[in-house]
Design a protein that fits this description.
Layout lengths: L1 H4 L9 E4 L6 E4 L2 E5 L10 H27 L23 E6 L4 E8 L5 E4 L23 E2 L5 H5 L4 E5 L2 E7 L4 E13 L5 E14 L7 E4 L7 H4 L4 E5 L9 E5 L15 E4 L10 E3 L1 E6 L2 E2 L17 E3 L6 E3 L3 H12 L15 E3 L14 E5 L4 E4 L5 E5 L2 E4 L1 E3 L7 E3 L1 H4 L2 E6 L4 E6 L6
Parallel strand pairs: 5-12, 6-11, 19-27, 20-26
Antiparallel strand pairs: 1-2, 3-14, 4-5, 4-10, 6-12, 7-10, 8-9, 9-10, 10-11, 13-14, 13-28, 15-29, 16-19, 17-18, 17-22, 21-25, 22-23, 24-25, 28-29
Family: Belongs to the peptidase A1 family.
GO molecular function: aspartic-type endopeptidase activity
InterPro entries: Aspartic_peptidase_A1, Pepsin-like_plant, PEPTIDASE_A1, Peptidase_aspartic_dom_sf, Plant_Aspart_Prot_A1, TAXi_C, TAXi_N
Length: 447
């Protein structure tokens, strides 16, 4: 247990300021997680990492696109279910950390997920579970566990795939595309930190997997804008993260509260800020106002209205830390593909790699590191730009093959998505109170 808890560094202890009423308190949670990447400590080659992340990115986007289509009542006339998508375990898709659950704390490894809001862990109360690294959380060994009734606020407001009342419990089912989780809502004390602990009561899912696998992890920590998010429950006004390239096998910091301030950290480029947009019909994603794309100095012929978030909740541009590949709507993807083929002085590969739409043959004996490519520039409303170097939009999933890490959005009405490869070595900040999204190029392993 100590080994895993040491991975979670709490740099600033949660401060509790009592109010005039002795029974009330105001909590300020200003802390930092150092999360492990999906392949930390493994022996997989970087080519295998890229291929696996691409496959899982496709499944994740199918899952969230299906949820979005259901929310806005549109399917684009296409089958958008993920049932026919074969992928490898979900845990290779994201970053994870270890928290303590209960009194006394029981360790639980949870995966950070920007595309869901529920915090849940496998729980002995609801029956058999898949194999995980830590012992399965046992609520009977905790003095602070309590089930939530059906009439509770979180049960009524939660956005589950489905829910029902069983023995007066709030039972739920959540579909994640590559896995399905069921359970009951409860409250429990969660402990963050290895040496200086901060504890807080949270609503969470005491659950199990009924389909799929999350390898050796115990559950998922949702950080979407949804009502059960850790951010909503603790009224955390802002958070930031800085993702190291996953092939580096280094930890990535995630900051909450006062620690989420780009001005406090060294960056390698200027800080830029754009509005955070709210989808009028769903709370799956965080949206930003992208209005155009350039490859190098060439502005692509992409109408701004094709990238806009529509009043019916379709379209727009979302930011997601657990999706690997970038997704672009038509005509943006077609224009980018054409520009890359014209601008990159390499022969197009006769055979593409699975999950990548466009690949090039590298000169014999050369890796992608020896190839120059112009930056991909994302333009936002108000004049801000996000400049992506070669490694943030190209990958080498097989030796001698360099592939575009951008694909077309799966159906008409689905959003464009800025994935985690596009965000690597970029410190990004979500200011939920001010509805702003800020970012700056940063050497993330130096924070």
């Amino acid at each position: 247990m100590a080994c895993h808890l040491r991975r979670l560094l709490l740099l600033f202890l949660a401060t509790v300021v009592a109010t005039a009423a002795p029974a009330l308190a105001i909590f300020h949670f200003d802390f930092r997680f150092d999360t492990d990447g999906p392949f930390s400590g493994g022996m997989m080659s970087r080519h295998d990492m890229w291929r696996r992340r691409a496959a899982e990115s496709k499944a994740r986007d199918a899952k969230n696109s299906a949820r979005l289509a259901k929310a806005v009542g549109k399917g684009g006339g296409e089958d958008i279910t993920a049932a026919d998508v074969t992928v490898t375990p979900y845990t290779h898709q994201g970053h994870w950390l270890t928290v303590g659950i209960g009194t006394p704390p029981q360790p639980s490894k949870v995966i950070l997920d920007m595309g869901s809001d529920l915090l849940w862990t496998q729980c002995s109360l609801v029956g058999p579970t898949v194999v995980q690294e830590e012992p399965v959380y046992d609520p009977s060994k905790s003095s602070s566990f309590s089930l939530l009734p059906c009439g509770s606020k979180h049960c009524e407001e939660g956005t589950f795939t489905s829910k029902n009342c069983t023995d007066k419990r709030c039972a739920y089912e959540n579909y994640y595309g590559v896995l399905t989780a069921t359970g009951v809502l409860a409250t429990e004390t969660f402990t963050f930190g290895a040496h200086h602990n901060a504890s807080v009561n949270l609503t969470f899912g005491c659950g199990k997997l009924t389909n799929g696998t999350i390898a050796s992890a115990s559950g998922i920590l949702g950080l979407s804008p949804g009502p059960l998010s850790l951010l909503k429950q603790l009224a955390i006004p802002k958070f930031s993260y800085c993702l190291t390239p996953f092939t580096d096998r280094k930890t990535s910091p995630v900051m909450f509260g006062a620690m989420a301030d780009l001005g406090k950290y060294k960056t390698t480029g200027k800080v830029q800020t754009v509005p955070l947009l709210k989808n009028p019909v769903e709370d799956i994603y965080y949206y930003v106002p992208m209005v155009g794309i350039s490859l190098g100095s060439k502005r692509l012929n992409v109408p701004a209205e094709s990238l806009a978030l529509k009043p019916d909740g379709t379209g727009g541009t979302a930011v997601d830390s657990a999706t690997t590949l970038a997704y672009l709507v038509e005509p943006a993807f077609t224009e980018l593909k054409k520009a890359v083929m014209e601008g990159l002085k390499l022969p197009v590969a006769n055979k593409t790699v699975d999950d990548y739409p466009l690949c090039f043959e590298l000169p014999r004996g050369t890796s992608m590191d020896g190839v120059e490519a112009p930056p991909l520039v994302l333009h936002f409303d108000g004049g801000a730009d996000m400049m992506l170097p070669r490694d943030n939009y190209f990958q080498e999933p097989s030796p001698g093959v360099m592939c575009l890490a951008v694909v077309q959005s799966p159906f008409k009405g689905a959003p464009s998505v800025i994935g985690n490869v596009q965000q690597q070595n970029m410190h990004v900040l979500y200011d939920l109170g001010e509805r702003k999204f800020s970012y700056a190029p940063t050497q993330c392993d130096k924070l």
